[in-house]
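the two lines:
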Amino acid sequence: MRDTPGLPVERPRPARAQLLFWVGIAALALLPLLNALPEGHPLHASDFLVSVIGKWICYAMLALALDLAWGYAGILSLGHGAFFALGGYAMGMHLMRLIGPRGVYGHPVLPDFMVFLGYERLPWYWLGFEHFPFALLMALAVPGLLGFVVGYLAFRSRITGVYLSILTQALTYALMLAFFRNDMGFGGNNGFTDFKELLGMPLGTGTARALLFYAALVSLALVFLLCVKLTRTKFGRVLTAIRDAEARTRFLGYDTLRHKLFVFTLSAMIAGLAGALYVPIVGIINPSEFSPGNSIEAVVWVAFGGRGTLVGAVLGAFSVNALKTWLTTLAPDLWLIVLGALFVLVPLLLPKGLIGLRRPRA
Amino acid sequence: MSKRLLLCLLLLIAAPLGARAQDGFEALAARLGGNFNQQAEAVERLGALGDPRAIPLLQALGDTRLLRLADGGVAVQDGPAPPEGAQVLRINNRVRAAIRGALGRLQLVSPDPGERRRAADAILRNRSADDIPLLEAALAREAVPAIRARMELALGGARLAASDPAAKRAGIAALGTSADPEARSLLLAARAANAELLAEIEAAVAAIDRRLALRRAAETVFQGLSLGSVLLLAALGLAVTFGVMGVINMAHGEFVMLGAYATVLVQEACRGVPALEPWSLPLALPAAFVLTAALGAAMERGLIRHLYGRPLETLLLTFGVGMILQQVVRLLFGAQNREVLSPAWMTGVLVLPGGVQVTQNRAWIIVFSLLVLLATLAAIRLTRFGLEMRAVVQNRRIAATMGIRTGRVDAMTFAFGSGIAGLAGVALSQIDNVSPNLGTGYIIDSFMVVVFGGVGSLAGTLIGAMTLGLVNKLLEPHAGAVLAKVAVLVGIMLFIQRRPKGLFALKGRAADQ
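prediction for all of em together
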């Protein structure tokens, strides 16, 4: 693969950039407390705001996963939304099982849509999802396994660059079509919704909202730490070498297949975790999460924030989504045009992203 | 008016010939004015005579609109009240039943093809051995193949209902030569009543089944080729921009969509001009090509040029352009589907020999896609522009030193690929909904075609498109449309394990780029 210009080999002022991240995390940690303030208080944060920011935190985790693969190993996946959605579906299956007899049809075991479609009993792949640890494990393992298989097939035959991007996009597209089908046993185009509780805690209350928010925030912090540590090891250095000159790294004796496969699988698992945290916060998961547009939107978060910096990915996820929320209420028709313009202008004018702006030009 | 004239003429002849023993049409017609017994006999004999002139008379008699004139002849009542001296003919139930039977037989020889067809269908519904001679006579003069087929089916059915075993055998054999599900069910229904002919019936059913299976296979192949030709059209432009220039154009699907909207606009411009209306589709071709080619050239010069050597960023940029184009079209034209009319010469169903049915517009698109492929090949192989393009692909710097303006060649190549996308849009407007997200459904599949066929090879694009189209349609009946798509995707992933560069890989120095 050719050298990729426009990427920092050294991370720009890692200490200061990371400080930005931790200050942000600390500030966000205050949000549920502000939500607890009485309504009408000048500092009161609405329930909506807490849910929205919680959603963005999950997006930021997805952005981190993407940055790990794209920014550090040069693997541009246009199908990371698939891993995110698979994690979300695993958690959604758990939440569906927890509804129990409280569904519209009141069936003790089967979710409403299965009663509606005339299922006699649970399909085999639903077994075990009533246990939270199993569901969480699946939310990591299924995306991880898919990432591993796809990555192995792709990297082994040295599919790189744009070919890999197109392949991953086709992957999420095919999964979207598959999950839209009713007979897959995943609720067809309605997906899963109308959840009641999680870990014995009724959803939709202020406490649940705060706890889910903190769960997402702590996960984001842990994932961030993991990524920072990983990229600073020798392993991370080899990844960067693969990104910049894959053939040369291979000739120097490094097993590039293993490195790429490991980072791609890990990235898929992080995306799955983000999806699993996302579903209880937004209260719904449906096949449109697999749509190629979602995956590519995640790519623009990373590109806009600055890829290969980790902090930039988080920053990009928050800023683009803030822009989206603001614009879709102000002028919903314009959002797609602005998003498109971001795609066009970022590579031309802002190749290092927002983070790159802070560094004076050499 | 002509009916009245005919009747006047007929009555002029009818009066003097009234009582001839060897009754012709005219004599029988005159006898419709007799008593009920005479009427019924005349109706039956008119039916057996097989002269289509009797149809309006019998219909009028059934509707009590037939008059007996003062001179003894008959005529169809024209005005609201019967003229002076004429009397409306009344009928009883026996005559009415005779009219029904006679009309059914007569319509077999009616000059109106629709009526003949309906008559054959009516006979097929209540098969009777009495109809055999009638059908044989009608078949002898029938020229329309579709109606002949119905009559032969009805004849087979009527023979099957005969009591004579030889006639039955002939009926079974005749039905066995068809490829008609109705013939099959006729034979199956006849099994219980004809235990002694079971072996013949089974053989005939098996023969029909074989033909039906063959026809189904042929139709599946046609559908596969049709899907393949659509993929070919969508992928050809990509093969130029991606294959020749190495630029991933994610806005390609939107260029296809713009081509379809150009068709809509041209059609609306032609509306109201009778001379242009049937030609709006051919007129849309240059319009769509020029529109998308100009956009493509502008995009290459304005944006993509700055990102050469950074394929991933190019991908994102073109995706953004696609998003903007899609949303702008949505704002300008609305999100709902726009209607594109097909010209008369493209609508309808074509029945090939063997009863294989193909829709005209899909057949045209197959032809069109091959023409576009040939034109593309010719442009690359035979023109000065193609020569310069190949030179720049092989070695940009040497080409520049030879005096080729590489920037201009880049722009023209990109415009060329985008223009082909516009042509694909014109074709797709005939078989798909014209909406702002028309292109998204095709873009992933056409990338698969290019990856599968091998980058930079038009032969690979052709074979890739047709293979994907055929495999998709062959799998569909067994696995369903979605699983077929998934299976094709998995198949491609496994295929590029063996041949990472696709079916037709570039060899030598060009392959390293």
